[in-house]
Write a structure and sequence with these properties.
Strands 1-2 form a two-stranded antiparallel sheet. With 196 residues, the chain is mainly α. It has 2 domains: 88 residues, Winged helix-like DNA-binding domain superfamily/Winged helix DNA-binding domain (Arc Repressor Mutant, subunit A, Orthogonal Bundle); 74 residues. Helix 1 crosses helix 4 and helix 6 runs antiparallel to helix 7. 58% of the residues lie in helices and 9% in strands.
């Protein structure tokens, strides 16, 4: 997801300052979809301002703390937002996971240590899925259905990953990561009612 799309989208909801935008992105779990690096984020803010897509509307001084610059999206920014939104909707999904490259070669690794790492991280992964479900439930009735779809697919994704990691842990504990020839014997997913 484009960091500029996220910034402009949040400014479509109302004027804000950079720290608040980052906090809102984290609160909405957007860091699961877009890398939020402060250097990149503030560079994007500067570029959007320089190019006339956002404008500062107020600077709040608070004594010993740094000034807060409040930004508003401009008409040109709204046009860019709509263009970025449609480009993102047309984009191809990427199947990318940091563990994939390691799994390709896991059969050559120490399965006990792999299992230990997976077991240590399991509570964190379970908590992330629970947190996403709570986030969804907290937003029902408060946000658009489009946002609810995003939150729900985030939850479904985390559940799928959690189940996959549990199967991976079971295989690592059983010393089966280097076995060949037998499939995983997975149950098919239930298909959702298709509107098409």
């Amino acid at each position: 997801m484009s960091i500029k799309l996220a910034i402009l989208g949040l400014l479509m909801e109302g004027d804000s300052y950079p720290y608040e935008i980052v906090r809102e992105m984290k609160d909405r779990q957007m860091h699961k979809y877009v890398k939020i690096q402060y250097g990149t984020f503030y560079y994007a803010i500067d570029q959007l301002k320089k190019d006339g897509y956002i404008a500062s509307v107020e600077v709040i001084s608070s004594g010993s703390r740094p000034d807060k610059t409040i930004y508003r999206i401009t008409d040109a920014g709204k046009e860019l937002f709509h263009r970025l939104l449609l480009e993102q909707m047309e984009g191809e999904p990427h199947l990318n996971h940091p563990m994939f490259i390691a799994l390709i070669f896991a059969s050559y690794g120490d399965q006990a240590k792999i299992a230990e790492i997976l077991a240590q991280k399991m509570p964190q992964w379970e908590a992330e899925a629970e947190q996403m479900l709570r986030l969804y439930e907290e937003h029902v009735g408060q946000v658009s259905r489009a946002v609810l779809h995003t939150l729900w697919v985030g939850y479904e994704h985390l559940l799928t990953e959690l189940n996959w990691r549990r199967r991976l842990l079971a295989d690592a504990l059983a010393g089966r990561l280097n076995e060949r020839g037998e499939g995983l014997k997975l149950k098919p997913y239930e298909e959702a009612d298709s509107p098409i």
